[in-house]
Amino acid sequence: MKTQIKICGLSTEASIDAAVENGATHIGLVHFEKSPRYVSLERAKELRAYAGDRIKTVLLLVNADPKLTGKAIAEVQPDILQFHGGETPEWVKLVRAKSGLEIWKAVGVRDHAGLLKTNRYVGAVDRLLFDAPAKALPGGTGTSFDWSLLAGHQHQVDWGLAGGLDPDNVTDALTATQTPLVDVSSGVESAPGVKQVDRIAAFCQAVRDYDASNH
Questions:
Q1: Is residue 108 within 8 Å of residue 131, measured between CB atoms?
Q2: What residues pair up with 181 in beta bridges, in sequence order?
Q3: Rounded mean pLDDT of 109-123?
Q4: 18-54, pLDDT tens digit by residue?
Q5: Which of 127, 134, 166, 161 is nearest to 147 (CA)?
Q6: Beta strands in 17-113 (DSSP E)
């Protein structure tokens, strides 16, 4: 089975084209003003329309209130909504039921006990994204966590791996975790928020090389 690839924090048509042309399965649009990858809802709508049905579009929100959440869904019409803050299982389950959208929740992993706590989202989300613990920003910081924490973990919902991935370490991450999806942002940039087409290509190629040698 081919590993799914999400290129997150895109803000240009060229970066979307690079993701599509290199075989990524998802793009991420970040609507969180503190992020260097922030796009307005108007810009997110344009980018989502540009991507069309060539690739799945994920809209990322962080602790958005109900009004903003509803407006974002209505304006951008993403394929998937990703929550990346302190949203509760009850809230994301409600959004999932009301919107009919596929819902992802990013969770920071610091230790084994924290990993087990993520099970409270089972039944509320369609996918968990295991990421490095939040710091000044909830994600996109280029830091990873101890992947060995995932060894032997009994996943009860679809999942993916984020946090500090780049073209040079994604093979090691896949080997260590056998994750079905990898999510990269800062690892394919030349500066915060500035995507590099060649690094997107290199990241996707590394994943496909891993798939070819392991399946």
A1: yes
A2: 4
A3: 87
A4: 999 999 999 999 999 999 999 999 999 999 999 999 9
A5: 161
A6: 26-31, 56-61, 80-83, 102-108
Burial class of 136 by CB neighbour count within 10 A (0 to 12, 13 to 18, 19+): exposed
Q: How far is 136 from 181, CA to CA, in rounded Å?
A: 25
* Backbone Cα Rg of the chain: 16
Output the CA torsion 149→119→117→169 (10° steps): 30
Total number of domains constituting the chain: 1
Joined together, the tokens standing for residue 148 give 């060995």
Separation CA 53–CA 44 (nearest Å): 15
Q: What tokens does 168 get?
A: 């040079």
Per-residue pLDDT for 141 more than 80? Answer: no
Angle of CA points 167, 171, 174, to nearest 5° = 125
Q: What is the CATH number of the domain that holds 168?
A: 3.20.20.70
- Using the structure block, give the residue that is written with the tokens 């999932």: 96
Residue 139 has pLDDT above 50, yes or no: no
Q: Which two structure tokens, joined as six digits, stand for 198?
A: 């060649």
* DSSP code per residue over 26-47: EEEEEE-TTSTTB--HHHHHHH
Structure token pair of residue 37:
């990858």
Containing structural domain, residue 209:
4-214
